[in-house]
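HUMAN: Quick job: go over this next protein and say how the chain folds.
***
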Amino acid sequence: MVHFAQRLDPLRTNVFADMDRAKTKARSHKRDLIDLSLGSSDLPAADFVLDEIARSLRDPSTHQYLLFHGTRDFRQAAAAWYERKYGIPVDPETEVLPLIGSQEGTAHLPLAVLDPGDYALLQDPGYPSHSGGVYLASGRIYPMALREENQFLPDFAAIPDEVLSRARMMVLSYPHNPTTAVASLDFFKQAVQFCQQHELVLVHDFPYADLVFEENSPPSVLQADPEKQVAIEFFTLSKSYNMGGFRVGYAIGNPELILALRQLKAAIDFNQYRGIFNGAVVALNGDATAVKATVETFRQRRDAFVEALHRIGWNVPKPPATMYVWAKLPEPWQKNSIGFCAELVEATGVAVSPGAGFGEGGEGYVRFALVHDPDVLQQAVDRISVFIREKNSSFQKL
């Protein structure tokens, strides 16, 4: 019998894999599936980006392995984009690292920071790959509770001293997936001060830097740590530029952390195809027209979906950012988000993500991904309305 490492044990169960099986079962029953469970944009990448990638395909010099020094144009574009947006200088040689999507970086960084048994401070609820990377590094997780009454921000004072004595990193992500919460620059300054005091690496996962519906852009953590003493920030082109399938992201931050992640990456993989980087360069160097159009599309979907839910009596708050709606479940399902989602997709073909899949703090909620046009979102709400009415009627008869 094959022996497997114990670090795999926490990864053997996955709510989203379970939901994928539920979706497959719904399809087998000829359900017309409306999938609102995955945050994968249905919008296309911009034509000028695709044209650049297409040109690269005919250039045989792009067909070779691509090592770090071959990514200079991309690193320079990422640094310039960041400086334009946030006003903080970035050295593309020592403070930028290309990644195969930002998830590669957030999942691999614990291998460079944690020794076995060290703690990572993670948001609860939070994005699943953050905990996955800690488990693979044989680290331990301290869940920082995010509660609605605290605007889904962690309380640093609540972290026990015995945990802090073994903690090596803190992971934050705002605008937040799944709660859609945003954080202020003052909050990030508090986080930086806390991490400096306790000698923690501060990791900020920042995929929704542009996908915000308020007047002011959300702050970068490096605006609170402009000298890059403790922080590293992860970016992706998946959301702003609709390039999720191209798997292109990057890290900016503390040069020692960038070097450590680069050394780790060198032992695991090369970079992706140069043509993808060429497309990413023109995306980052281009004007914001395409990004603004994407944001406006998701704003219209958000407004249509939230208003439709309100009409059926599900009074969810309007999210200030991201491509999601985070909704507290009706009373009968407050402690069974997985059951709600499994029954919903089986009965109606509407697939959503159970809050429990994002951690214990997510129980009692579901996450809707706004990855369809408003007319399809309305169809989903219509099916949800019938499902809830029928279930409530059944509950009342018990």
The radius of gyration is 21 Å.
